[in-house]
Each structure stands twice: as structure tokens, then as C-alpha cells.
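Let's study my pick:
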Amino acid sequence: MAKRSLVAFRESWPIRGSFRISRGVKTAADVVIVEITEEGITGRGECVPYPRYGESPSTVLDEISTVRDAISHGADNMDLLSLLPSGAARNAVDCALWDLKAKLSGKSVSELVGITAPGPLITAYTLSLDTPEKMGIAAEHNAHRPLIKLKLAGEGDIERVQAVREFAPKTRLIIDANEAWTVKMMESYFPIMADLGVELIEQPLPAGEDMELGNMARPVPICADESCHDTSTLDQIAANYDYINIKLDKTGGLTEALQLAQAAKEFGLGIMVGCMLGTSLGMAPAMQLGGFARFVDLDGPLLLDKDRPNGIQFDESVMHPPSSELWG
């Protein structure tokens, strides 16, 4: 096998305005890029280090450096599962390997994996956390979209959802509490969210404090995000949730994500495919999971000032697969 080279570096992509969730505000998407080159062909992958999981661009770059020699000597996607833990670093390397394999073989990643190639997908469009009044205005501007996702924070969330529903009466709604609710909030919020037509609630309780969900009537399906990273976490959370949110930056790449999607199906769990805030290079591998998912939330590029060349083409909320020049 021809020797491979691996390089990794960070980039920053400004967000249009700012993006706020219950844990803070972002003004840029800080990503790490991996490029793996063999025979003059380069495969690329992108990840988003996430402080919630103790990651930063520096720590992720350090992790990636530990597998440089293994990759240069031919380590593949399956080898990577034991070389790096699940997380952002492994995601970037795994996706770069898939892209390289596709470009060297002349086949798409879908063909290599043995799944149906992703077609156009409808993605949720995310409204950043704000006051009910401002979220209502944002909803009015996006009321034509088929699916809106709201970032929430706990206190005042009923008013936020009511304002959005008032100004987007026909749009399907999903909400993401980002671990900000309490059990008491849930007991009072649940029936109201159902009445407002909310279709899914992401991670209402903090990860590790969500055992109460298994004993609770759930008039709206609940989706595990921070509580579900890879296949090793399913046993712990399956009884407490109805869906899982598969994000490649949590699973550590497409290889584990595909295994997680299959395992979730065996557990009877629905699937949402989601993302951190990044460019089309980070979304393209996640689109491979679109055929498994009831909900798709891959709107990261829509929230940036600009995206990469040859990226995903968005027709409002309909996303079309990118050029193979970008990935896969």
C-alpha cells in the first residue's frame, strides 16, 4: 500500500449574526479539518470540537496526531474504532478515510457502504434561543419552512413555543432543551407542548439524570442527544427515550454512526440525524444517514455567513447532496 500522509488544522467560519443555546452564545463555527493523501489523491473530513464534552480545537488536534503513524501505515476505518475514542477527533479522521477510499476507488461512499445514496432531504431550520418576542419574529420570517427546531432554556419556554406557534401556525415544530429542564418543568410543560403540536423534544433533562423519563407518560416523543453517543450507550438509555439523535461528532464518524443506526432500529428507537454547527464538509457524511432518519437536522451551513465551494445546495429547507469534489 502506498504510504499515506495526514495533516490536520483548524478553521473558523463566521456565523450569520450569533447562535445561542442554553449553554452560551457562538459567533463562529470553529472546526478541525483532516486531510489524508495517498497517490496524489486527498480525502477530507471535518469535525466540531465541543466544550460540553471537554473538547477544544487544541485537544482534538492533539488526539489526531496520535494516529498519524497508524494512518500512514494503512490503518482503516475499522482499525480507527480502537485507535481513538468516540468524539470529534475520530470523526474527522474517519470521514477523511471514507472520502479518500471513495476517490481512490471511483465509487461513492454510499456504494462502498452498501446503502441507498442520499437524495434530497428536508432539514429542520433552527431558531436560536432568544426572548419569546424575538423568537416569534424569527418564526414569522421562516414560517414557510416545513420544519423548525427551537433552542430552549427552561424558564419561559412555554411562552417561547407559544410565540413561535402563533407566527408559524402551519410549520412542524421540534424543540431542544439542551439539558435545561427539570422533572417538575417536564410535568407541567409536556401537555402544553403536545397541545402546541410539538412533535419531538430533545434532551430535556441533563444526561445522567434522565432515569425519571422511563416512568413518565410521554405525550410528546423524547429524543436522547447528550445522553447517547455511540452503541455502547444504548443499553443505558433505550427505556427512557423514543428517539436518539445521531451526530457524527459524538459517534466518532460515519463508521460507528452506521452501526448505531442499525442498533437503534433493533432497540425500537426512532432516529434523528443531527449536527454541530459546521460547514457542508461536516454535513455531507451525515447525509448518508438520511434514509434511516425520521427527523433530519443538518442546517449548519444555512446558519453561516458563507459555506465551502461545491457544498450542499439548499432550496430553502430542502438539501441536495454536494458535489463529489467536496466529499464522498
Remarks:
- The chain has a mean pLDDT of 94.
- The longest strand covers residues 5-21.
- The two ends are 21 Å apart (CA to CA).
- Residues 75 and 126 are 37 Å apart (CA to CA).
